[in-house]
Amino acid sequence: MVLCQGGEAAAVPAAAGEEPEVPLSREDGAGPEQPCPCPAPGMEAAGAEERRVCGCCSGLSWPRCCKAPGTKKKAACPGLGLFYTVLSAFLFSVASLFLKKIEDVHSVEVSAFRCIFQMAFVLPGLIYYKTGFLGPKGKRIFLLFRGFLGSSAMILLYYAFQVMPLADATVITFSSPVFTSLLAWIFLKEKYSIWDLLFTLFAVIGVVLIARPPFLFGSNVTGIEGSYTDHLKGTIAAITSTISAASTLVILRKVGKSVHYFLSIWYYAVIGLIGCVIALFVMNEWRLPYCGKDRVLLILIGLLGLGGQIFLTKALQIEKAGPVAIMRTMDVVFAFILQILFLNHLPTWWTVGGALCVVASSSGTAIRKWRQSLKKAKQNEI
Angle at CA 166, nearest 5°, toward 162 and 168? Predict the structure, then answer.
């Protein structure tokens, strides 16, 4: 019997309320150091008609196994993972633009439709991988909190998109990696250095420049959509969404690889749909869109959001987490461009300055975590 290394799973914090993960390659959640058996040549059982398969190749027969002698591994296209990241950021930004274009649909109802699309995508995966619908008994409470916080982040983010400038809401959500480091230090006892504190301060300064509270900037605040009250509500919703998204990432770190990727998203979609339906009936906002344009935009938002998540997951499968996290800042660039071209809303210099502070802090956090992971990998090799 020949031993080959099992598939590796990874995850990276994401921005804009999205939580991309890479599916586990095995049901038991085995890590990369746990071997999987592949049959050696000449060891076929007598009379056995079934073909032996290798777990590290998603079911390929052993002669085509990636670890078999003489097998050439297909070279990945250079930069393909980064291209997938940029494409994912573009799809997320266009979905946000369509959300701004919807006129008669509440943000909670949009979130409900998004949850339905998530469930339709995840359900076949749950059946195929035979994960069940509840998960391991010891992990269900974490999955419930993950579903509640993740769906809350999505609902609050959609509300922020509807009541404040697109670029402002997008920039605020990109402070998620900074809050993730802070929460991981509090709840997971992870290291929190002076650099992390500096990045947190930069992110807070960026959010203040975008929110522009009257006690600092005066009563005449320019460059906002509608009233300042709505702008302030949107800012609070975006910040709360960011903290909720960071909390879900901390929960996913706590759960680790013991819970399948599809099961985690299933809780996110089901709890989100239940919460959205209850909220819509309480607010008496549940109604079908009146015009065909809003119905088409609802479908496109679901498809684009799902497509963005798929491409981001594919990027994480073939590229390191650090470059992907940095390249995701293109979402901010796309938000500014789309806001200027299609919403005729020029950002103020305060917004640009806030964007630079937030992008610098999130990029610095990503680069620092990436270098730490590379250093740890080299130490493990030694």
Answer: 110
